[in-house]
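# nightly structure sweep
# worker-07 picked up a monomer target from the shared queue
# config: single-sequence mode, recycle default, output format = structure tokens
# input follows
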Amino acid sequence: MVFVFCFGLLISQNVYAQIESPQPDSTELVDTEEEDEEDEEAVEFDSVIVDNNGPYWDFLRPRNFSFDTSQAPANQYYNFWDTVVINPYKRDLKLMDDTIILPLITDGCGFHPPAIGDLSSTFGFRRWGRRAKFHFGVDVRMDVGDPVYAAFAGVVRIAKRSADYGYMVLIRHDNGLETLYAHFSQLLSFPGQYVNAGDIIGLAGSTGRSTGPHLHFEVRFKGEKINPNKLVHFPTGSLLSDSLQIDKSCFKHLYEVKAAKLKLKTPKYIKARKGDTLYKIAREYGISVKRLARLNKLSKKSKIKRGRKIRLR
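# output follows
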């Protein structure tokens, strides 16, 4: 009898460990900044928490549960269902020519703010250490264990642990949007689960690349991020409009991100090679000839000697 009791206790502790993630160290609770999250094209870090009893969500989803992907929401915009890769669509929406009007609120799709709290960081460039990085969502201050809610009705596409986002959930909604919620201390949803607006999908935490408990919240369309402030007035948690117009202006920030990444790769100075001209150097480094000439106090037609130091930025 003693052996059976000890074995049962061991199993119960193992089950609990699959559901409850480690709490953040108190020394981390300084602020709510985290490095900008990256989509994990190749999942290399605990994409699914597994032990001998199976994935963690086996303790959440009903026995023999299955999801018919032909019933996935918003099939008019998405032609496949991926439960691992955050952005499998690979669409360059900053070049889109058409305009789409998404009704956010319908008979079967209401709205609930994903979290209640002040914003600690918003959408856009911010300082991270000694450099600026682009933050693709908003951060809501929360305490560990606070509930996080589904913003709209839809189906959970991803619920996993990732290197950057920590414990995270991504939901595809009936209205065509996808929303991402990150840094949970505990997941309370599983892939294929249908959720209504306001259903609790997890508990706030500080997992992944985070230095304090908060919710990182993103809004996406066909994989590309949209400023959540276009939809939600976060101080009040209210929806700004019953519909959202999506066109290329929603993704103009991607040009800023691309330019910033290019700048990081561009050296400040180079040495001219044999045969170099301002036009050739400008084309190679993606800089205008006019700017290159101004930086180096040259005319556009100036001849450049081999070995001359040329300033690029």
